[in-house]
TrEMBL record:
This is Energy-coupling factor ABC transporter ATP-binding protein. It comes from Bacillus salipaludis. It is found in: Cell membrane. It is a peripheral membrane protein. Signal peptide: none annotated. Residues 4-245 form the ABC transporter domain.
């Protein structure tokens, strides 16, 4: 089943004379984990915002085509309606903080309390996400006293606590160190395995290759391709799109080693090791 349908999506910010999104069409199946990649200003964040309805409800401008999430056309529904289906974690976690809560715990509880859930369910969900994102130790701290990485985890926790069917994450680990990023990616992957549809804009190509089912390559607002990580990272024109393939793909390409029974280069450490061992006999 298609969880997200995008058809002929075009969008131009007010006062801009170029399209930030230029005629995008694609579908995402339920439970898929999709990576959005492309150089700076390719349109990744704008596409994320279009999936949750901030484009065109919050960011006005010229809009064409349609975005349907879980059967709901975002243009003809309010952001509040769409947000019941899709949760978004913003590129900058500071944008996401309510600014009115004294502790991390209250901050995460905010959305849940507004949804009218019973108190026991709220407590259970908060405990779950505090543990999932490893932020129990800061639960009584003021959100604005957190480090960038802790704030990013709190932003992700607040959204996951709402249990959306679709999760849109815009560079969710940009403030985290490698170990923290790995933990967050593993947590997101677990949610994806539970059937949640995940859309993730990301610059860390090794992570995209390791975790995503398919990768959408954007360039100047246009969709260049949407395919498996192996196919995308084996493209000859990556440099033109400002993308550097994962290091494993680059090493294998330099050595002329492809994935067994495929025309693509391995993109993960595991596959590269297998292919290299195969080459060495
Ligand atoms: N609020 C805005 N008003 C006007 N133009 C904007 C706005 N936000 C983004 N843009 C423009 O839209 C285009 C797409 O930007 P967007 O932020 O979606 O790219 P991105 O791929 O997320 O980039 P990055 O990798 O830097 O996060 C760029 O040309 C950018 O300058
Ligand atoms: Mg962005």
């Amino acid at each position: 089943m298609n969880k997200i349908i995008v058809e002929g999506l075009k969008y131009k910010y007010p006062l801009s004379d170029t399209l930030a999104l230029n005629d995008l069409s694609f579908q995402v199946h339920e439970g898929e984990f999709i990576g959005i990649i492309g150089k700076n200003s390719a349109g990744k964040s704008t596409l994320c915002q279009a999936l949750v309805g901030l484009v065109p409800h919050f960011y006005k401008g010229a809009y064409g085509g349609k975005v349907v999430v879980d059967g709901l056309e975002v243009k003809s529904h309010s952001i509040a309606d769409v947000s019941l289906k899709v949760g978004m974690v913003f590129q900058n976690p500071f944008t996401q903080v309510t600014g009115s809560k004294m502790t991390v715990y209250e901050e995460i509880a905010f959305g849940l309390e507004n949804s009218g859930l019973p108190r026991s369910e709220i407590i259970e969900r908060i405990d779950y996400v505090l543990n999932l994102l490893k932020i129990e130790q800061v639960k009584d701290q003021n959100p604005f006293d957190l480090s960038g990485g802790q704030m990013q985890r709190m932003a992700i926790a607040s959204i996951i606590a709402m249990k959306p069917d679709i999760l849109v994450l815009d560079e969710p680990t940009s403030q985290l160190d490698p170990a923290g990023s790995e933990e967050v990616f593993t947590a997101i992957q677990n949610l994806s395995k539970q059937g949640i549809t995940v859309i993730l804009a990301e610059h860390k190509m090794e992570k995209v290759a390791q975790y995503c089912d398919r990768v959408l390559l954007l360039h100047d607002g246009k969709m260049v391709d949407l395919d498996s990580p192996e196919k995308i990272f084996s493209r000859q024109d990556l440099e033109e799109h400002g993308v550097v393939a994962p290091v494993y793909a680059r090493v294998c390409k330099a050595l002329g080693v492809k994935k067994a029974a495929s025309d693509c280069y391995p993109v993960t450490l595991e596959d590269a090791e297998k292919a290299l061992r195969g080459r060495l006999g």
